[in-house]
Amino acid sequence: MNHRFTLKSRLLGAAAMAALLAQAVTAHAQDDTIKVGVLHSLSGTMAISETTLKDVMLMLVDEQNKKGGLLGKQLEAVVVDIASDWPLAAEKARELIEVNNVDAVFGCWTSVCRKSVLPVFEELNSLLFYPVQYEGEESQRNVFYTGASPNQQAIPAVDYLMNEEGVERWVLAGTDYVYPQTTNKILEAYLKDKGVAAEDIMINYTPFGHSDWQTIVSDIKNFGSAGKKTAVVSTINGDANVPFYRELGNQGIAAEDIPVVAFSVGEEELAGLDTTPLVGHLSAWNYFMSVDTPENASFIETWHAFIGDAERVTNDPMEAHYIGFNMWAAAVEKAGSTDADAIIDAIVGVEVPNLTGGTAVMLPNHHITKPVLIGEIQADGQYDVVWETEDLVPGDAWSDYLPESAVLEADWTAPINCGNYNTETKTCGGS
Amino acid sequence: MITQRLLNALGGKVLWVAAILLVIAVLVPASNLLLPVGHPLRVPNYMVALLGKYLTYAMLALALDLVWGYVGILSLGHGAFFALGGYAMGMYLMRQIGDRGVYANPNLPDFMVFLNWSELPWYWWGFGNFWFAMLMVMVVPGLLAFVFGWFAFRSRVTGVYLSIITQAMTYALMLSFFRNDMGFGGNNGLTDFKDILGHPVQASATRATLFAVTAIALAAALLVCSAITRSKLGKVMVAVRDAESRTRFIGYRPEYVKLFAFVVSAITAGIAGALYVPQVGIINPGEFAPANSIEVVVWTAIGGRGTLYGPIIGAVLVNYAKTWFTGAYPELWLFALGGLFVAVTLFLPKGIVGTVGDWRTRWRDRRAISAAKIAPSGTDDSSDPPKVVRARSADPAAPLGASKPQPAE
Amino acid sequence: MPRTDTMLYLDGVSVAFDGFRAINNLSLVLDKGEMRAIIGPNGAGKTTMMDIITGKTRPDTGEVFFDGTIDLTRHDEADIAMLGIGRKFQKPTVFESHTVEDNLLLALKGKRSIFPTLFHRRSTLEEDRIGEILAVIRLEERRHDLAENLSHGQKQWLEIGMLLAQDPKLLLVDEPVAGMTDAETAETARLLRDIAKTHSVIVVEHDMHFVRELDVKVTCLHEGSVLSEGSLDFVSADERVVEVYLGR
Amino acid sequence: MFSLSDTPLWPAAFRAVRMFVLSLLAALLLLAPARAQSVEDLVRQLPEGSFSDRAAVVSQLAATGDARLVSLLEALAAGDLNVVEETGAVVTLSGRGDPLDATDALTGEGVGEVAKASVERIRVNNSLRRAVRAAIGQLTVMSPNRNTRLSAAGAMFQAADPENIPLLDEAIAQEDDDGVRRAMEEARAASMLRTEASADDFAAAVDVIAARGGRASLGILTSALPAASDEARPAIEAGIRAIENRLALLNVAQNVWYGISLGSVLLLAAIGLAITFGVMGVINMAHGEMVMIGAYTTFVVQNVIRVSFPGLFDWSLAIALPAAFLVTGLIGIAIERGIIRWLYGRPLETLLATWGLSLIIQQAVRSIFGASNREVGNPSWMSGSFDFYGIAITWNRFWIVLFALAVFAILLVVMKRTSLGLQMRAVTQNRRMASSMGIRTPWVDALTFGLGSGIAGLAGVALSQIDNVSPNLGQGYIIDSFMVVVFGGVGNLWGTLVGALTLGVVNKFLEPYAGAVLAKIFVLVFIILFIQKRPRGLFALKGRAVEA
């Protein structure tokens, strides 16, 4: 009887050893490239948005190599699939940093993905460039937020509707998760600040992937027929947007009557539907594909050549990766090293051109400056920019409209060196 | 003789697997902590975290095997118990952050602060206390399993209907936990943990300890499950799986047998979830996703259900494959996983362990036949045959209860 | 005869499924210690009657009493089994992935609740009892074999053995000799007669040779009620019975 | 709508009267000196200034009453107006490539070719478009075309501009169509409520608006309330109450309709499953992927049509239906022959195999079509909505309800009346008996599974009209589909119908009170509890037949 079990244990042991060895071998297979990790979902629910970002990263790395790489070394992209599974994202982040020895990681789309990998980057002291607009209320030493924070998207959009369209009544509709909840909290506070009465604000949340919008659209219609100019501020996420806009169009809510301004709908989302009935509905972003600048034209051209499809669109998170990657590259050149601490010191203040004709500056709070553009949907699925901020807006990590965060400030340069510095108590919380 | 008895009571193979787990529980942390970085035999930090995660998954698969392999309840909602245990642990870890959150609020976790909650909801009370939290790790999943099972099994909801409502249960829980108003951090879940029992969760020593605790817990769970399945009650469980109404006509109450197994299984899953959370650093409603629970079923099926140690092997293998594929061939990952399920159901209906067992039985039978030709049988048969039979009876002869001729019901 | 002296007492029992009356005003009385054979064509309500007695089906109307005083309609299957009614199914149902020995062990009289079962240790008394039963059902040789590997007839016997292990007051035996050879049938008849010395038994059977060998009072069911009752000769002489069996 | 093709049909007399009225109005308005600018000058101001400045220009243009402006303004709203940078001429462009043919937007005369780079599009936004809509209303309220006048009245109702009252009075005076006159009177009343009109006028206007009913009227009355005099107030309040009562009733009807519509989507998604799962006992987790493939088939069909036969676009769904049925049906048959047939009698194993299969199909579609959404267009008859006694019913939902019921009816006929259906039922009830009676059971199994999958494909065509066409499409429906089948009772098509509609209506009645998320949770909990009560679903077969 005994020999059977020893055989089994040997087998198990051998399997475990093989696994360990495989890891050890890859860990020691160092070569002379600078490695860049790409941490996006290529399968599962988020693949729909994130796959494009993986392609953009491959393109950027490719372009950089054509320019001769960095510090005389070629770049190498290491792509992993986090499969829309957030604990897996943490595992993969660890693998990228510890096993593949990447020098920086570009990735994540959802806040939960970022939250789940954050401790890993902190523990292993590596760099994450996060390219998507988010709820703010965060600033971390190892993370660079190249997407918009609420003051770079939501507040200017509301200002535009208030001033240009004379909106007095507001529907804040969102998917029930942290980004819409926080954004709507900020907007609610902001609107009340501007004298909007509580009964003129309607807040509505729906589950992820909600597909039956009949009731909500008709509620919006009802809310909008109270005799005051009404607008919808939509933080509805990804997949739910197509059925939402279809229902809007079919129920005949024209943009002239009740405009919808969205913060999560871009060219990529519109690619899935016929936009004729949606002409005039708005989005607020920091980039639109239709922006007419030489930088953008060449970016689009490179993208189409890289992906081999001239129909593919570009969108705001792609620009964020473009800016983030170039900032990292500039910081590497500036520091003369890919060491995380050196980059963290070097990158603050780095300026790179964005695609809309301005420059993006990395701020001490690890957010960047961005222009805010309001675009109206056109029949061809593109946006027509109807308004933009005159100056670049610096990204604000802590909203001024939430009581607890108004006193906080992030500054990763000496002497403060803190992501949540309390300006009243002059202390750095949470460390 | 006493060891022999113990071996029989707990199941020989199971005891060996448990022993291996205990050895791993010592060796892996020791190698990680004692050997210098770069030593070829050192288990890197990354591997410790990964292996720890696999072992918690293995424990979840083991829990499922107890109800599926032995009582025939195919739960498509076991991820819910795992996640609830994880949330209970997560709540403890959140409370341990104290005033080190970004808003430096001593009473409220960060996500409550920025959603303007003014006080801690009542269901968070007590989670600052480790022992209370550990109690809840078992009580919450156990209670849910008890209430759910009490109604479902007494109403004689069986088979596919039961599977579908367990799926509905985990789906409803997922939607609930996604809601920010529930007070569990919504989609982001609970994260940014700092300490466990005063030790920083990210420190190597803490990780190594957590790994050792996980391996020991898994070994203990394996032994407990083995003891249960080898008791008379274990025999009743298999009887319920194969011919539920027959057991009823000889006086057993299958609903309570099922309820017992379901609750024990849910508690095991809850403990697995609690061990999982500090090792991966996050718990979010995605763990309730029905697809996750189906994946657990697949690990169990691939390993070999009704064997207790098979699911452990299945969980580790499939998750290792997932780690490898999502890194090496991200595009092919779903093809590989999907193909594996199809192949296993078609070609290895008894899973890896069952199939290997079949080969061995066949090989032994052949040897026995040839041996019988040489020597007349019956010299020391007195002790051996029962063991052979037991070993076989632990493997369900047919892949699923449903394939058995069922009594008129 | 007063109800309290009976082993089983059914009065005016009816049950319908979707309008089909499976049992129609059935009345039947079994004395203590009696063995009764029940015959009847397919669909006569034999199995449904068993279902009612064992608590699987609840009658729409009528009274069902066991041991004179116990109202069976108020109890479920497990309760009724514990009260002392054992049942053998038409299709042999044994626990196929258990050994013959374990099958008997599970059926042995004893506590059925969860924790006593969990911490159960087999006593010598139980060992002896299993040995006895194995001898009675002639499966000593197959003691450690899996039940699924038994022949059809052996499974029937094992099931009867499980009934014996339960030590019920009343045995309901549904078609015990279906699929048996003649020798096995004769053996089974002998076994049942043995059992009937100490238990009350109801046997449902089609095989008239077997019923004749049992040599007991016979009840013929038809369309859910009693058509005829008496000795086998009396019943088989009844014209209505002949008509039912041969068709109109 | 106003269109040029109507021009030759205008009777001369009409034209004369119209010109007279318009010039009279124009003359009146010219009295205001600030507005004394020529139409041409005003048009040249269109490209300049902020959106609000330009909206003011549009109002001035409308005040000129110049009929040529209608097509110019329509082009402006559509974003088709361009300005030639050098000359400042406002033109529309036609042709392809570069240079383009330019046409003077006001006169409609060709002005030669212009280089693409030398023109700039005149941007519009919502507020400008709103101004244009009101202006077009003003300009076309005297149009000889009834529908044009009607939509003009509608536009003026929405604008509710007091300055329109004289124009509306004029138009009402000569209107001879009752419907149009009523619309004009409503527009006039809405405008009147924004003035300091006399009590009588005010009360009359309130009556008109209250009689009109509907949400928009409610809005007008509500916003008129604060400024109203004390005498007018009770009338307005009564009007508001009357409208609200009617709306409350409508709300119930509307919820029922929404519920039916959601239910029919569930029915479509579930009905194929009712065959593969309900009739055959295969727990088909790849069912959702069949729906998804049906939707992608629609996408491919539409793409082929767009490229090769653009005229057939409105027929694309009709073409996609058989295509989707065939594609998914054949895939279903292949799955049955390749995998399922080895797993009969092991229902829970089919769950694992088909789930693996669903992963493979999803990833395959992702590899072929890409991970992002694909555009499936709504044919014109699936777009927009119609009004049914005050309930806005969208055409796509309407057709989907009809389609779901039709699929259900056809399936019922197939199962009950055709020999295939008879054989299917025979095989599923007693395989051995059926095969000994000469039914080729493997063939029937394959066809049954193919039928279930094919119907899933049909559902995909319908769902492509309301949901994303992405590789994740199927996943969103699979759990709901199982809930419907289990709730309705496995193996019973009627159960699926009643189950789907019940869940739809329950969900829609809960939604306004509990919100969409909680409504869904409640429905799931309800199903779990319901199964305790009736472990075999709503329409369970009873008695021994089930147990065999």
UniProtKB/TrEMBL annotation, chain A:
Keyword flag Phosphoprotein: no
Coiled-coil ranges (or none): none
Taxonomic superkingdom: Bacteria
Keyword Signal annotated: yes
Segment forming the signal sequence: 1-29
Pfam family, one: Peripla_BP_5
This protein's UniProt keywords: Signal
InterPro entries recorded: ABC_urea-bd_UrtA, Peripla_BP_I
Name the UniProt record assigns to this protein: Urea ABC transporter substrate-binding protein
Organism: Neoaquamicrobium microcysteis
Gene name in the database record: urtA
Automatic annotation (TrEMBL), chain B:
InterPro entries tied to this protein: ABC_transp_permease, ABC_transptr_urea_perm_UrtC, LivM-like
Taxonomy, superkingdom: Bacteria
Localisation per UniProt entry: Cell membrane
Keyword set includes Membrane: yes
Topology class, membrane: Multi-pass membrane protein
Transmembrane segments: 14-34, 46-64, 70-94, 130-153, 160-178, 208-228, 256-277, 332-357
Alphabetized UniProt keyword annotations: Cell membrane, Membrane, Transmembrane, Transmembrane helix
Molecular function GO terms recorded: branched-chain amino acid transmembrane transporter activity
GO CC annotations, alphabetized: plasma membrane
Entry-linked CDD domains: TM_PBP1_LivM_like
Residues forming coiled coils: none
Location of the region described as Disordered in the Swiss-Prot/TrEMBL record: 374-409
PANTHER family from the UniProt entry: HIGH-AFFINITY BRANCHED-CHAIN AMINO ACID TRANSPORT SYSTEM PERMEASE, SLR1201 PROTEIN
NCBIfam families linked to this entry: urea_trans_UrtC (TIGR03408)
Name of the molecule in the record: Urea ABC transporter permease subunit UrtC
Lineage: Bacteria, Pseudomonadati, Pseudomonadota, Alphaproteobacteria, Hyphomicrobiales
TrEMBL record, chain C:
Keywords in alphabetical order: ATP-binding, Nucleotide-binding, Transport
InterPro entries from the UniProt entry: AAA+_ATPase, ABC_AA/LPS_Transport, ABC_transporter-like_ATP-bd, ABC_transptr_urea_ATP-bd_UrtD, P-loop_NTPase
Domain ABC transporter positions: 8-248
SUPFAM superfamilies (alphabetical): P-loop containing nucleoside triphosphate hydrolases
GO cellular component assignments: plasma membrane
Pfam entry (one): ABC_tran
GO terms of molecular function: ATP binding; ATP hydrolysis activity
Name of the protein described by the UniProt record: Urea ABC transporter ATP-binding protein UrtD
Organism: Neoaquamicrobium microcysteis
